Amino acid sequence: MAELVLDGCRVTPLAGYLSALGAHRAVHRLLDSEAQGRWSQGVYVLRCGFATIDELTVALHARFEPESIVSPWNSGSGFAANGKSPAAERILQWIRESTDERLLPLRLAVAGADRVVSDGLRLGITDLWDKKRKPEVLRLSRNELPDAAVAWLDAAIALGQDDDPSYSRLLGTGGNLGRQDLSATYLQQARTVLEHRDSVAWLASALDGRPRAPLPKDSPGQFDAGGVGASDEPNSVGNPWTFLFVIEGTLLFATAVVRRHGAAYSGAALPFQVPGSTAGFASSASGEHPLAELWAPEWPEPLCIPEAAHLLGEGRADWNSHAARSGLDMARAAATFAVDRGIGAFQRHVFVDRLGQSPIAVPAGRIDVGVRGGVDLLAPLDRWREALRRTDPPSHIAARLRALDQAIFDHACTGQDVALVEVFAALGRCRSAASRSGKVRDAKLPVLSFPHGAKLLDQLRDVIHHDRELRIALALTTSRDGASTFGTWLTDPLLAGGLVAGLADIARRRSFPLATDEVRTDRTPSVRGARIAFERGMSLRSGDIQAFVEGAIDDERTAALTLGLSCVDWRYTGGENLPGTTSASAPALDLVLLFTGAAPLDYVNTDGESRSLIVRPGHDWPSRLIAGQVGAVLQDSSRRLRIAGVRHVVSVRGSAFDGRRFAAALLLTIKTSDRRAALSRVAVVGSHQTELVQEVIT
């Protein structure tokens, strides 16, 4: 069997995708039941018993029989016979009076639709096209129409358990696109290809994309966002054959009335179709609103039509143990391999309503199927996001929620560690905005917790080296005293006044007498004070603390990451040292660094004796630093070091550093060797030939 590359049937626009499926289906039912098709580099490749496209074109044109496409449930289909749709009424009459054997299935379908109308009138349904009577008419249609015509009904509409019609957005509202009835247009185009002298040329152009003859000017409907094609654009919906193949291709997306969305959902499942979402879809048109999405699957291995029909009609795309319910869910299903085997990628099409006009399908990107790290670890976000959305939050919070959705979508599509970091930054901004809303606080959102901190840390390891704000946020959020974590010290609104003011306030509250327990019970500090630093957590390099104190970091982003990462359970991560650089010499900073961290600092004095330094900040330090009394605190730090036995400690009478930043820095822990280097710069100590290991409490 030869493989024919159908360059006229590309994955975008939607017309190209559907026409590929429709052409394959037509070949299957009319010429070669063993024909197979696959997607390759955005083009459909058909494997069949014809050596060339020209051979296929001649055979398909000679054998072509239109599908049984009739819509008696729509008033614009011509069956109402009320004179409002004269073109539709004329084409139906042409079919009724035809004698062409190729139209026999279509004549039977029209006759069945006529019986639907007559039976409905006989049953007392005076207005069959009243929206309230739609379920009854649909049931009559299913009873009276031949099987070949029921396929169109199944593709367009499904009745859920409550008899409420569910419409496939592929076909508008039951085969209506605005004022266009697709069944009537299909029949008119079928007559055109059966009678027009250029029909063979049009068919070849629809298959291989090469222009051969001028095309009629027709409305593209929703299937081609680019608009009506010119005469040199063979894949325009202006090609009658393309339109016929588009409609036939939709028959493979048969709807299924199944409880696929869980026990509480009784509607119809529309395969690979989900409600519209703005995540991952940056519309450039003003007044454009997403209505629904089709995630069109691409398969790299050849499938025959029964296999393709099964895939498209019963397609599986699951996220977080349930069927995907949004474009965001579809992206995450693709990123966790929770889709049917054989699907290599999805082409996303968003159906949008532009200023109340007929909807169009806009290509919104291609997403490969494959496992992308960290996507499954973000599943706990869903319950919290939906709870926040149900509060009908104010516009500024809704904007933060949309930004969070976008960040999750970007990460699901790329799997990049940088994108994962931005998810937590977006979460932090969303939490911060929500904490300032009385309406949201009254709603009592569920507790948000990511249980797999160690796995998340593994996903972030590569990016940690290049992201100072992330390192500071990790040092803060992994800090804990037994059951008490950094997050428990956060109060609503979260980090009120910004990062520095919020952290300085936490340091102030931790400096209160009895606010924290001393970690060493066998020794007491030389001068009593407050253990402001946490017992456990990751340690920073002194260069990061210097950047923080100097204001050389992005405070807003650091705060956002801190609030996002504070929802992670870090209990099973070790107190490891984060990467970074050492600080430059700055006596004021070096003095303060010696009071960060809870564990003793081992060093060697000038006599070569090993010593262990355990000092604590004064209870009043954070308050005095916040008040700008930096010089007094620095003087007290020198005094405490001397009392602890450190020799020749420098005195620093003042500093240009912000006192609030110094207060916030007291919460942090730095690497042992950096504390020791700071000590050597502000006091006289012995040479430390071997790296002593600081006691780390885990």
Could you characterize what this model shows?
Residues 211-231 are annotated as: Disordered. This is Type I-U CRISPR-associated protein Csx17. This protein is of the alpha+beta class. Among the domains are: 2-66 and 197-233, no CATH class; 264-372, no CATH class; 483-553 and 562-697, no CATH class. 41% of the residues lie in helices and 12% in strands. The protein has a four-stranded antiparallel beta sheet. Strands 8-9-13-14 form a four-stranded antiparallel beta sheet. It has a two-stranded antiparallel sheet with strand order 4-5. The two termini are 66 Å apart.
TL;DR?
This protein has 698 residues and is α+β, with helices and mostly antiparallel strands. Among the domains are: 2-66 and 197-233, no CATH class; 264-372, no CATH class; 483-553 and 562-697, no CATH class.
Strand-helix topology:
Blueprint: E1 2-10, H1 14-30, E2 36-40, E3 43-48, H2 53-63, H3 86-97, H4 104-122, H5 134-144, H6 147-156, E4 157-159, E5 165-167, E6 176-177, E7 180-181, H7 182-195, H8 199-208, H9 240-250, E8 273-275, E9 288-298, E10 303-304, H10 305-313, E11 318-319, E12 322-323, H11 327-335, E13 345-354, E14 360-368, H12 381-390, H13 395-414, H14 417-435, H15 438-443, H16 453-464, H17 468-477, E15 480-481, E16 484-485, H18 499-510, H19 542-550, H20 555-565, H21 587-593, E17 601-604, E18 610-613, H22 621-626, H23 630-643, H24 659-665, H25 672-682
Antiparallel strand pairs: 1-3, 2-3, 2-10, 4-5, 6-7, 8-9, 9-13, 11-12, 13-14, 15-16, 17-18
